[in-house]
Structure formats: C-alpha cells, structure tokens
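Re: that chain you flagged

S.,

Sorry for the slow reply, it's been a week of failed gels. I finally had a moment to sit down with the sequence you sent. For the record, here it is as I used it:
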Amino acid sequence: MQNGTRLAAVDLGSNSFRLEIGQVDHGQIHRTEYLKETVRQGNGLDSARNLTPEAMQRGWDALARFGERLSGFKGSQVRAVATQTLREARNRDEFLLRARTVLGFGIDVISGHEEARMIYQGVSHMLPHTDESDRERRLVIDIGGRSTEMILGRALEAETMESYRVGSVAWSMKHFPDGQFTNQAFRAAEVAAKAVLDDALTRYARHSWDVAYGASGTIGAVGDMLELAGGPPGLITREGLDWLVERLIKAGSTDKIRLDGLREDRKPVIGGGLSVLRAVFDLLDVHEMRIAQGALRHGVLYELLQRDNTVADMRSATVVRLSARFNADAAQAARVAECASELFVQMVPGARGGNTATREGRALRKLGWAAQLHEVGTQISHSEYHKHGAYILDNADAPGFDVEEMHILSQLVLGHHGKLRKVEASMAEPVFATQLLALRLAVLLCHARRDPESQPLRVAAPAPREFSVSCKSNWAEMFPQSAHLLREEVLAWQKAGWRVRLSGC
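Prediction finished late last night. Pasting the structure tokens below so you have them in one place:
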C-alpha cells in the first residue's frame, strides 16, 4: 500500500465506540486522528438480550458523527468491527441495518476468538521489535465491557486465544448496581470472575509466558491512576491494585471518587473492571503487567494494511484446517468446488477471474470455500450431515472470518442438500441464491465422486428469481441418473417459488 494512504478502524465496543485514523508510512501506521464516544451499549441489553431503543440510538448517533469524519474514504480504507454486545444482541440486525447506513461502511460482527487475535495484532505491532522482544512469550489481556480476551503469542503470531464473558460493564451492573463500593461487593465480584475465568488457569498458566501485557480501556485507566499516584509508569502491580480497591472502598460510591487519571465516563464501570483485573492477577499468578499501547483498533488497521494477501491466505488456511479436522473428502471437495465455480461464472460473468476487489469475485471465493466445507458434517451423521456441517461452521473458531461470513458459509452448507425451505430467508439475497444453485448442481453432477463430463450444463440467471438450465446434447441419455436428479432439483426450486426453465433433459 502506498505511503500516505489513510486507513480507518471503527471499534464498536460494549462501553465505547472508537474511531482510529492513521496514515501509512513505510509499512507502519501513524495516528492522525482518534475519536472515542462512550455509548455503554453493554448495559443497554434488556432481560431478553435485546438492545433497548435508547442504546441503539446512542450507537447510531455516535456512528453518524464517525461517518462525517470518514467522508471521502473508500471502502478498502475502512473497517468497522463489533464485539461482545452485538454478538449477544438478539436484535443486532435491526441495529446494524441503520448503523451501516449512518456510518457509510460495512460493520463486521467478529467472534471472540477473532477479536482476541486482532487485539494481539494491535498490541504486538505497537511494541518494539528486537531479537529479544520477538523471542519473549507474551500474555496479552484485554478487559472490555462484556468480555475479556486472553492471548498467548510470540512476535506477531498469536498462538492461543480465548474470549470470556466477563467485563467491566457487565460486572459493574451485576455487583455494583448502585455504584456502591464495599469489601463484600469486591469479594463477590472477584470470586464470580474467577469462576468464569477458571479454565484459563490451565491454558494460560504462569509457566507458559514470560511477560504480561494489558490492553485497552480498563487496564489503561488503572495504569493512569496508579502512575499519577506515584506508581511506576506503564506498569500495574498487585500492590497498586490493592491500594486502588482500598481507595474505592474508602470513597464508598462512584460519585465520591476523587482519583487523578479517572475520567468521568470511566467511573460507573471501574468497580467491575478492577474486580476482573484482580481476578486475572490472582488466577494467573501475575505480579506485574505492562500497559500496551496497541488495542483491537490497531490490529484492524494493520490487517487493512495487509488485508489483500494476509487475510485471504488466513481464510484459506482456516478452510483447509476445518476440512482436515473433520476428515472431509478432499478430492470430492475439490471437484465440487471447481464445478460450482464454473456454474456460478456462467450465471455471473463478472465473477470470471475471481477478482476479490469486486462483489462478484468475493462471492465466487465464498462459494469455493463453502464447497470445500460442504461435507464437514459427515463425521457426525451421514443422513443429516448438512445440518451438522452448518452447526459446525456457525460455531467454529475461524481466524480471518467474521461472524456473518461464517453464517453465510453455514447457510450454503445447510442448503446444499435437501429441501430449500430451511434457507428460505437467506435465498432472498440474489447472490446467495445463485451461489446455492451452483453448489447444489455441482454436488448433483459429482454425486458419483468422480469428475463430471466437461461443462454438461449451461445455466443462466436472466431475471430476478429466475434461472434457466440446459443440458449438453445426449447428456441425459448417457447419464440417466444424473438427469433424473436434475429434474428433481428443478422441481424443488419451482416448489420454492422460483422460475426454473429446463431444456434438453
């Protein structure tokens, strides 16, 4: 990417929305602008896990202001990611529909593992790079509003990642609901946090890392307060955490806190965040933690810088890993992928060449991934393998993919076999329907697990909700079983309300 190019990352966190704008300079990104809006969407989830109208409006208002600052940016220069609150919210689609409009760019809801991976990217890119630092084994902790991410890694590579549902907003609402600080409340909050984080004791044990780093809001706020109180700069110690808890208990409530370095917007969630941080220190035997400058938004920026190659390779590697993990038939996956791609290009000529800078090219690539993964459920059940495959993809750890992308793949896998009614909602999107037809026809043509005859079908999509399929001369006579399956397939689409014209078969 050329020097001087501007890139922007938007982080839709549970407590705050953040906009980071940077400029590329010889492979590094230097900040040119930073905006933060405290929206507290994390405490805007009702008992049914729906965002309240007020919480949605706060988010839309913040994103509208961000959108003004992003005027003139191209889509390739901006990425917005949403984390735990929108992972949980049942009505997130309602929020995201308007959010994408007011921001002016797409918004990806990322999984906890993906969030952890990009946090590590942000932290590691902002640390000095020396032979010694690149050898150190790092533990990175990020305490957000509704989740806490833990990562082990070396240099720029994250090796072990996990996201836990415990955070500053959630724990403040649960254990300090009236903003009152007592010994009993802190003890209860820390015990409850340890119960959630308990399995981290094995995965992130003290012998598995050399240096602990803390990233983002809660840890940054704690570090600021301790430094201004005379503590070592850029460092959090157990003694410092104990002192801070004593000060909060002595204050008694959020409105009486008088601590340099604690902003007003951070006061309502400091009790919960501090409880989680103390639980991490106790559980993982952390004696001191260095405050990192990097965070999720920086990881997003560096992935934007490298996205064309790095993320594409990462996604492809993820698909290969998932296919291998569930022992999918690699040869069958390859022939189905090739056949489905040929059929899709016939219907969408703009996809030819697979240029991922275009929507058509990206759709072709996703179709290829779905084809590679269409049989991952066979290890669980042969009769219902498509349903199990869809479940696996909706719940798998998939580096490089966001939640919505994996859901699209899962729906293609779910719909590639059996009745179409189960993916009717997804079929309202014309590109998805075209991908699905290509995949189903490819599976049909490759049903004998051998390469089909070269281009036996000609397919087209002449109008919305309409397809045409024609057979190669004498193909139906040479392959009567395949021809029968094709006629059944056409009937299935017609029953689903699509016009499909079949000729020559």
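What I noticed first: The first helix runs from residue 53 to 69.

Talk soon,
D.
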